[in-house]
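User: Quick sanity check before I run a bigger batch. Here is a single chain. Can you write out its predicted 3D structure?
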Amino acid sequence: MSTLPNAAPAGAEAHLPDEALGAPLLHIEGGTATITLNRPQHLNRLHRADLLVLQDYLTQLAAHPELHAVVITATGRAFCAGYHIGELDTAPTDAPAGPQLFEQTVDLLERLPLPTICLLNGSVYGGATDLALACDFRLGVSTLELRMPAARLGLHYYPSGLVRYASRLGLSAAKRLFLLAEAVPADELLRIGYLDDMADAEDLPALLQRYLDALAAGAPLALRGMKQALNEFVRGDWVEARVRERETLCASSADLREGLAAWRERRLPCFEGR
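Assistant: Done. Predicted structure follows.
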């Protein structure tokens, strides 16, 4: 088990004081970090303080290359209701407004070098739909629905979120979700590519484990380098020299030598991320 600062050891969640129960939790076990949204009584809506905690967690995790993956999930019957609407216009004068802070948090998640999986244990609404979209993979329970109500609130969504929707789902799907603000069921989300996989609730842990096992079997340098390059390509901010640098790093890595040796010897490789 990890000793990352602020990471909750196994069972520690039960001993948190009542006022801390709403904060997101971070649990590290083996090569997987799990962030759990923890306001089930409010459908896990995200408060300003929660976003700051998430940013802190993501910054910590970026500095720990020994991890294979980061999972984001939630407690209760919903994944997340998005940003707390009651805090939209209550930011301190010297701090970014709620939507800007939310955008910063989601962008930080997208840029995390580690592979990320959003495990949607229930329905997802508002800004939380973009939080999930910023992850590399989205696995959802078959009963969930998605709704993006920004237009019904008079809220113009932030630029990077619109780019993520259009680049990942296509313009037609993005327009449908944003402009019609209708509830979309899980099977349709799978069809349009919002979900990568779905399962009944009892089968979701096994589905997650399948993805975690596949990521753990990959060479960390290659996985992270290609993830970064692919995200840069779709954002339009890629620089060939930077991509070539990662390519060269992998070409001279101990991981590549190990991968080739394992292939020749017909055994599983043991990568070290260097």
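Residues 220-265 form one domain.

User: Great, the batch can go ahead then.
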